[in-house]
Amino acid sequence: MQHKRWYDKNEALKQIMEILESSDPETQNDIANDIIQLIVNKQYDIDNFIQVINHEIPFNRNRWYDQDETMHSAVEMLKNIDETEKKELFKEILTTLLNFGAE
After folding, report:
1. pTM exceeding the 0.70 threshold for the entire prediction
2. Which of 19, 39, 72, 85 is exposed most, by the fewest CB atoms within 10 A?
3. Reduced 3-state DSSP string for the chain
């Protein structure tokens, strides 16, 4: 099976991205801020993320998550987390998404 988007390779991440994409802009922003905070709280290599995000600023902004700087930053952070660290983080993000859905 060929994946056309980088996040299609991981089922949990694919679900997270689908939920985010279908959310209204205000909810997207709130969740993006939560994702960034979760990553910062986990003390991943924040300096590395900042460097990557600064170099990954899209020129065309064709992807749905590139339209908003906060969402773009959150997604790029997710994209660049080490594979071994993603599983636990995805559980926390899915919990956050469920909490937003319950509100």
Report:
1. yes
2. 85
3. CCCCCHHHHCHHHHHHHHHHHHCCHHHHHHHHHHHHHHHHHCCCCHHHHHHHHHHCCCCCCCCHHHCCHHHHHHHHHHHCCCHHHHHHHHHHHHHHHHHHHHC
